[in-house]
Amino acid sequence: MPLTSPVRVGAALARAVVVAALAAVALPATPVQAAPPSAYSVAGVDTSHYSHGEHENERIDWNQVAKAHGFAFLKASQGPGAAGNDAWFARDYAAVARTSLRHAPYHFFDPKSTTDGAAQARQFITVARAAGYRGDRAGELPPVLDVEKVRRHRKEVCPAALRPQQVAVFLREVRRAFGVAPIVYTRASFVKECMSGDGRVFAGHRLWLARYGSRAEEPQPVPGAGRTWTFWQHTQHGRTPGIPGTGDRDVFRGSLAQLRDLAG
């Protein structure tokens, strides 16, 4: 039997490589279907004074909440001054700490100047410590920084004074105070619209991402942050036994045992 010409063999191999490459471009792998919130076994809530009924004067039954949830994030403060302290935080924190809920305070980043990152951190640290939060006690999740649009003249807008370096200052000061890297609450669309698509300041921090919608698709990656979400806020209009009216609902990307490991 005559041997095949080496030239023909080489040409055939070259054509095969080209065809395979074109096929890979023309026929991308089918993306994995995102899981709905119900696919995650550990649910949680986040609250503020807005969670206390229409007139903000109704108590939350935290024992009731704890029956079906694993964690809670509580708003402690907003902006650089005491005027932004949440009126219900101290009472809610004390009540949550007596339940099985893993918990942590959060601060709403609301810059009044381009240089008040440290002042916001001090305000948050003071309020959290006064309520009894230390960052390393059993049941305590890492503290949280909430970075999103702010309300100005009844509209939600990008914070005009937002600067990544001031966010970095806040994160550094809070980590120094509590000995643990803060969790960051934000969303991909905010980073794209309000931070020029650059979320590198959040790199190295666990992410709590918001994404809503009728199909409740999983949160999109934050550009530059370098990791996926750990917590997902999937609705603002959920109903939770023990909490007046409707409010935020969340899930944890992991098991209850993993949540416990993260908490203190």
From TrEMBL:
PROSITE patterns: GLYCOSYL_HYDROL_F25_2
Keywords: Hydrolase, Signal
Keyword Transferase: no
InterPro entries noted in UniProt: GH, Glyco_hydro_25
Signal peptide: 1-34
Highest rank taxon of the organism: Bacteria
GO MF annotation terms: hydrolase activity
A Pfam family it matches: Glyco_hydro_25
Similarity comment: Belongs to the glycosyl hydrolase 25 family.
PANTHER family from the UniProt entry: LYSOZYME
Record protein name field: Glycoside hydrolase family 25 protein
Species this protein is from: Streptomyces siderophoricus
